[in-house]
Amino acid sequence: MALRVGVIGAGQLARMMIAPAVELGLEISVLAEAENMSAALAATQVGDYRDEQTVRQFATTVDVITFDHEHVPQSVLRALENDGVRVHPGPDALQYAQDKLVMRQRLAELGIPQPEWARVATTTELDAFIAEHGGRAVVKTPRGGYDGKGVRVVTAAAEAAEWFEALADGDALLAEELVPFVRELAQQVARRPSGEMAVYPIVETVQRDGVCAEVLAPAPRAGERLAEATAHIGTAIAQGLGVTGMLAVELFETDDQRILVNELAMRPHNSGHWSQDGAITGQFEQHLRAVADLPLGETTPLREWSVMVNILGGPEDGTMAERLPLALGDQPGVKVHTYGKAPRPGRKVGHVTAVGDDLDDTVFAARAAANHFA
After folding, report:
1. In whole angstroms, what is the distance from residue 230 CA to residue 131 CA?
2. For a FRET experiment, which of 77, 157, 293, 365 has its CA 20 to 30 Å from that of 218?
3. Residue 344: inside a domain, yes or no?
4. 185 and 160: one domain?
5. In sequence order, what are the beta bridge partners of 352?
6. Mean pLDDT per 10-residue run, the chain (374 residues)?
7. pTM over the 0.90 mark
């Protein structure tokens, strides 16, 4: 009987696990928040991922649980564990992707390089942190933020006053130094329950309005020393936090050549979309191998360069389907991945990947294909 994998969350990440699941002979089901979500191509149960009984019932239909996002409450994850369900990544690991304060504390214990930070429960504490760090700081809500949400650069605590007012007793915000970075990088690592790990090449990510717009793989100007350093950081975090599945470590490269950890994601991630068409084993297949405790695949790139460009917003006129023939005809060497989502300003509705042996030509091809969906 085929191993049954349950994915909580039915967004584009779950959608892109379907094809490799079929190829691996795995059965995949998803628990969706609503009808007609991106992963409706798979057998879908609709229910609230925050409701313990709903999730526990879904778990009875599969052999292992994994995730499309990090938002399933710890109480629900612990209930699954108590039921004997295989959960990857488990709650002990996932807590570090769910709460940025918990993450910062644990990374400090592991000796992982990261920005200077502080737990700030009052405006007085935040103003003191700002004064100690050159008059500016990054303030974050510890839980729930993504794609630039829940993040502000401030010069005074008053600029985050409503966040402080919304805090429950005992809660706090995260303050970080404003890092003088020259570019953003990402390191992906896969780890299976047995402890086997596989490391992907370090990539450069290009952000626009807090959202990942492009990924260059491998990161240009990434010498052997940088690649070794980021691989060490990624594997140390995967091992130290007990991650199972894909781990994406978002990094800053600073103007004084430091490498600092920004954030973590314990699932397939935007920074790894290039690997679908640019590596021997793409991140979605690798994630399924890891959570099913199958031997991990090679991560070697297929060509010298891979470039991923996100399709953000989608066409102002017409549909994605109407634009698809134009993109494919103009750039027949580019792969287009659509998410089955209606266009909406700023929304990730798909991505394209191009591979080649010349970086400029590869970037041009990926951008040209993506522009057909603007």
Report:
1. 31
2. 293
3. yes
4. no
5. 309, 336
6. 92 94 96 87 89 97 96 96 97 97 98 98 97 97 77 96 93 96 97 97 94 96 95 98 98 93 97 98 98 98 98 92 96 96 91 98 98 95
7. yes
